[in-house]
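Lecture 7 notes. Example A: sequence first, then its structure tokens.
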Amino acid sequence: MQISVGDTIPSATFVRMGAEGPEQIALKDITTGKKVIIFGLPGAYTGTCSTKHVPSYIENMGMLKEKGVAEVICVSVNDPFVMDAWGKDTGAAEAGIHMLGDPEGTFTKEIGMSFNAPPAGLINRSLRYAMVLHDNVVTTFNLEGGPGECSVSAAPALFDQL
């Protein structure tokens, strides 16, 4: 079932690169007691994800912080090695965006955002979305209408919803 406004975010554990290699991190360790944005996308290094979605958050981190956002989290069905490299290559890591891997797509499936596009080689990937959480409760949920679209899930679309 698709997550929606008013729902509490499910418990989830992601994988990221730590000082000594891959490490697990509980989502609630980053989100509890805070205003947080989570945005999900089909995959690291893919077209729209790299040219529009992630850059929209990098370019607008200052404004998001001014609006009270404590953390910005990018979730993709990728391993932590890829997410780490992509975060460095795009500047997302330097901007302070948490680049979290959901390697098995567990979280993505649980919130109803999983999709398959075999012709593009995308299996069990994430639809493109953005959500705002206040202390783990979804207050805004924006889902893109189709492949390659990046408008309602981009950072500027959230400004009036914060």
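Example B, a different protein, same format:
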Amino acid sequence: MLHRASEGLSKAKPYHLFEHLIANILVLLISFIVVVALYKLGEDVLSLLVSRAFDPLKHETFQTVFGGIMTLLIAMEFKHSILVATKRQQNIIQVKTVILVSILALARKFIILDIHALEAAKIAALALALVALGAVYWLMRERDAWNMEHGRQEEG
């Protein structure tokens, strides 16, 4: 992976090489974090199974298991976006990717949220943030579709 990508970068400017190196280090670190988080999630689920406390209908169990799964999905999506950016030799992070990861993080927050421990205003603020991010993502997708129809290519 590193060899093929570095062939195209042999004539690149020093900062682009530095950026590519940092991106590859980030991919390795995130991969390590995903493996450790997966191990921890498996350990938690196994522990719940052994103690016969695994009841997916219990809110606390659901929060633990699906909160861990969402954390893994967020990390993998983030890693994937860095990999895609380095292969295309574009800007490291695209705005749409940041918005998508933010939407996933807010979805995770709603999954693990204890509605009795949080004020209604904070829940409303989280919901508004989620709606705003969804609207921005939709608008960017529409812009990209419009650009494709009209033969324009825009990054972002």
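Note on Example B: The chain has five helices and no strands. The two ends are 25 Å apart (CA to CA).
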